[in-house]
Amino acid sequence: MKITFDWLKDHLKTNLKEKNLLEQLTNVGLEVEGVQNLSLGKELFKVAKIIKTIKHPNADRLKVCDVDVGEKEFKKVVCGAANAVEGLITVYAPPGSIIPKTKTKLVVAKIRGVTSYGMLCSEFELNLSDESDGIIELSSGYKKIIGKNYYSKSKSNLIDLSITPNRPDCLGIRGIARDLAASGFGKLIDFKKKKIKSNNRQPLKVKITKEKNQGCSMFGSCLITDVKNTESPQWLKDKLISIGQKPISAIVDITNYVMFDLNRPLHAYDADKIEKGIIVRNSKSGEKFTALDNKDYKLEDGMCVISDHKGVLGLGGIIGGTRSGTELDTKNILLESAYFKPGSIRTTAKKLNLDTDAKFRFERGVDPLSIEDGLNKAAILIKEICGGKISKIDIQKIETHKTKIVKFDINSVEKIAGFKISTKEIFKILENLGFKFKKKKNFFELIVPSWRPDITQEIDIVEELVRISGYDRIRIIDPIKERKKSTLNKSQKLFHFLQRSIASKGYIEAITWSFTDSNYNNYFRNTKKEIKIVNPISTELDVLRNSIFSNLIIYMNKNLDRGFKDLSIYEIGPTFSGSKPGEQNTVVCGLSSGKKYRLSWIEKERNVDVFDVKKDVVQTLIETGYKSEEFFIDNKTPDYYHPGKSGRLFLKKDEDLVAAYFGEIHPSIIKKIDMKTESLVGFEIFLDNLKLPAKTLNDQKNKFNVSDYQKSERDFAFIINKDVNAQDLINAIASVDQNLISNIRVFDVYEGDNIPRNQKSIAISVTIQSTEKTLNDNDLENINKLIIETVQNKTGAKIRS
Amino acid sequence: MSDLKKIKDELFLKLKSKLNLSEVNQMKSDLFGKNGLVSSQFKKIGTIAEAERKKFASELNVIKVELQDLINLKIKEIENEEIREKLQKEKIDITLPERPFVRGKIHPVSQTIDEISSIFSEIGFSVEEGPDVESEYNNFTALNTPENHPARDMHDTFYLDEKKERLLRTHTSPVQIRTMLKDKPPFKIIAPGRTYRSDSDQTHAPMFHQVEGLHIDKDINMGHLKGCLNYFIKEFFELDKIKMRFRPSHFPFTEPSAEVDIGYEMKDGKIIIGEGDQWLEILGCGMVHPNVLRNVKVDPIKFQGYAFGMGIDRLAMLKYGINDLRAFFDCDYRWLNHFGFDPLDVPTNYRGLSR
User: Fold this and answer.
1) By CB neighbour count within 10 A (0-12 exposed, 13-18 middle, 19+ buried), where does B113 fall?
2) CA distance B57 to A259
3) Same-domain status, A743 and A611
4) Of B196, B224, B344, the CB nearest to A477
5) Could you tell me if residue A384 is inside a domain?
6) Whether the predicted pLDDT of B1 surpasses 60
7) Do A647 and A661 sit in the same domain of this protein?
8) How large is the ipTM?
9) Min distance B298 CA to chain A CA atoms (Å)
10) Both A569 and A604 in a single domain?
11) For position B33, what pLDDT does the model report?
């Protein structure tokens, strides 16, 4: 909502300055979004006329115009607008002026070899509208003031307010003035309302059909005959220009003026173009009309239309049609002032993707009792400016406005706000805002003003009072430092632990979108369902991610393109398995590329490999508190891992839920996405599949139990089939005697010479120690034997002699 | 006995020359071994006449100790010499680079979430979470934003079905609904998390982070709200004093509602929070609307309280001087390295937010 202090002063008597105004607007909740000095530099913008145009010698789309700016000589201006034709009256900006939209300062410049002295402006560039197609076209009335300033000399700044959707009354200057007055910023001027004096009935029949979902409940109108539509007088033009509106013709300008002044949208029809009478009804599917924005609209069932006996004239409360629009030669006008229901307006406008000033107001709620005031004010102005005779006002309604009554207990203010407002002050504020009240036994009955659709219950009254008396009166109550419940629950603690545990292993944390590119997602989707976003922001972010890998790989690739080689990144966050709330899992996903060590004077160069990520996963899980002796690992992994160089880890052998996957990313994916790296390995740890750790760290600590008896190391070399896993050997050894075998270490794996094909040799060092005694040679020999026997029985391995 | 004296003198001479360890050990065993010279003298003791025996034995012992000392001294000397030689040989260029290492980092948003949690933890808030995919009801309707309410326009929503029943939450406020439906009052929670709006430019990202706050009890009023936020902002920006302004605003789920601005000034192109005459909006808040309480079966006559929501990314930007919101999610290694935090820098109550 754009306003000026000058316009506000039509409704508000105040001696305060604009600086105070801006503060007070903010204080009452009418947020000042921006202040523009319209007069500053604007005196440079002149009304100008194009005298001659020739094609630019070096550019097909450009023209060189001779422009009359009221000086002796014409200005040469290069212009690219299609509508820059001889005779057009438009706005000229000379070198040195600053274009309001772009904030750029014009200079004399050569454009493709031709010097241009200034610029002809579009409405967009002047911040008048979004119309950027072509330069502004001024009406012929401006002929008389060529060379004069386009902007009036008003010193009042344009103030842009952000009006919250609950305050339609402040979409009119008067509503804003009322709030300010209530807060003590001046006094609201009480007008003696001028009323139409007429003996003539409004002869056009108006009917609101009674049907389901009728969007219009009241339709007021009056007929003004024998008008002479003309240019608006300067005061009216200035007013509209001062809030960034473009004057069009007196009748249109007057209806706009009343809308901005009172938040009362009106519509003027050329009465001669209305066939027989007005019918307000629901549209039928397939009906068409051309709206005043020169676009054709095809309607669906149930949209509120204003029609005559020939068809649709306009969409009620949203936009009029060209068939009945007023023009400069319009003689007789039907002026409409109606009430349209917010929901109906909103549904229709959304379906047709239409946004107008009227729609914006009706969908938020226009004062249903302002129908007559609007007609009176506009009709009398039209008569003043355009002459003519006004009929009586005709109002058709199918529903009457019900006055809202809200129960109000004065104590509720302090209860919510935490500070007291005196009873006297309370009623002064409410009165100034337009409330009326009746005292009951323990409470008051407040009659809510008709322009406040947002007020329905006591809390809304409290809000009014706190807002108007000022939020700075709310005192600070310092919080008590007391904790009754632990801040994080177990799984949140697990999240934080894993997050920092992975980072401590050299991974850099990334946060990427929860959505991803479906092409990439498909590589990592495995058996999961694709979850499409109905209205994605781009085709590259069109699905919810089934895995974090897709985004990590996309961004990893971007970083490789930046010239990095050895990268480790990870993300902890959601992956999605369905589109229902809760069908998501928390995953820590990491990715490493390139080499572990690149050529250096001290370390041997080598690629990152599956055992690097296996270490990161296993170490992290151990640090988290899980027992590595119980881990079970096999090679059944999703299809995006290298089938031979990847694993899945269970916290225990017979658990159903996978704790983690790790391994090389499938080479065919790396190829398809054209990733240039020596090696790419990754892992996923599934938080939701991890059993939450024991209650406290204390509970996690077993009794301290160590043996001081001598330990012995024994080395074994077994020959086994290639398809037997080292894990099986280790488990077999561990099963021999858990009290005696304290450590098992694989120190060599060998295939090749001296070993039969399809077999391999695994050398294992076993540490044997008793908690009860020093083992003698005999004991050790027995265990040795037992280990060999057990391994042979369980795995088929043979001891290598 | 004179034999021994002679031996001692010889040894003394010998030990003066350059010897290696094994030569000295040989000498040692020649003297003290089973049949060594000294050992054999000791064996003689029994054969010596009673009168001489005591003297002999004592002299022998003296010589033995002397010889041992001499030899041990020599051994020590040789060992020292060996170490000295070893050190001489082993001298390296210590300015050569150390073994390569990598440093992990925590994303500034994660760090900021931990900071926020730590601050609110101290005044008794606990952390709640909710799903990223929400029902239309939890995200809007239950929060007093019925269908066809213009306030819905302020949220450009991503939908997952044509009926618009499932969506990506546009704010963390649905966690209020879930929390209140799940438990009984009082409630004192914060809910940090991902939020989504189909909006993308320099200052908007389609995904961003919010933290929701909710405190419902019997007598929680706007003064508590102001106190809580005043405390939070001071703690978060690690300042003793802060300028804060409450400004009336409108959110469907709170009444009265406020937007909160903090004072700042620009110094050398950097935002300095806490001083200056400029205002910067940092969050929205208000008293939970009675309609919302009714929707979650909490009696608004008995219980009342406040809620707030703020942008985590924005807080991080302000605190750490980050200019571009989009960079948070662009995953540029250089940016992550620069703005990321060491994993050991865990914000906690006792050690504070910063080192």
Assistant:
1) buried
2) 131
3) no
4) B224
5) yes
6) no
7) yes
8) 0.88
9) 16
10) yes
11) 83
